């Protein structure tokens, strides 16, 4: 929800903290997954080399452990990318330190005078109420669910 490509909270100051919160959430999930997979791997290896444990009670490291390591790596990578994109977007909006000057910057070029605004979309009236009646609809009493949804 915090990415710029979504329409949630568009032009709001909430997007940046949402992006950081998502990144921190992915980092925490990756760390917790890494801890539990490492703990399980340690227990399996310690039990495997225990000479007092019967041979039928010993386990080996399997595919699930490797999938756990891969998922923790992907979660950590996703969290780092989200946090990094938030930091880089903040630097882009503020500009690098060596580029900041006390001179007023010129206003950006606007294309409002060149291109007229797009017309609003109105769905064609021919398609309205042109649906086949289904057995589970309330169309027999005159009410249609499609009129309200």
TrEMBL record:
InterPro entries in UniProt: Claudin (IPR006187), PMP22/EMP/MP20/Claudin (IPR004031)
Similarity section: Belongs to the claudin family.
Keyword Membrane: yes
Entry protein name: Claudin-14
Keywords on record: Cell junction, Cell membrane, Membrane, Tight junction, Transmembrane, Transmembrane helix
One Pfam family per UniProt: PMP22_Claudin
Subcellular location(s) per record: Cell junction, Tight junction; Cell membrane
Main localisation: other
Membrane topology listed for this record: Multi-pass membrane protein
TM region(s), chain numbering: 18-41, 61-84
């Amino acid at each position: 929800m915090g990415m710029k490509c979504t329409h949630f909270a568009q032009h709001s100051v909430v997007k940046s903290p949402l992006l950081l919160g998502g990144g921190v959430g992915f980092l925490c999930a990756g760390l917790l997954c890494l801890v539990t997979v490492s703990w399980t791997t340690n227990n399996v290896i310690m039990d495997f080399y225990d000479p007092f444990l019967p041979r039928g009670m010993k386990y080996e490291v399997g595919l699930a452990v490797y999938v756990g390591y891969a998922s923790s790596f992907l979660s950590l990578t996703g969290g780092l990318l989200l946090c990094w994109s938030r930091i880089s977007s903040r630097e882009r909006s503020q500009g690098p330190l060596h580029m900041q000057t006390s001179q007023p910057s010129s206003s950006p070029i606007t294309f409002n005078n060149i291109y007229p605004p797009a017309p609003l979309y109105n769905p064609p009236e021919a398609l309205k109420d042109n649906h086949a009646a289904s057995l589970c609809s309330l169309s027999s009493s005159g009410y249609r669910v499609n009129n309200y949804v």
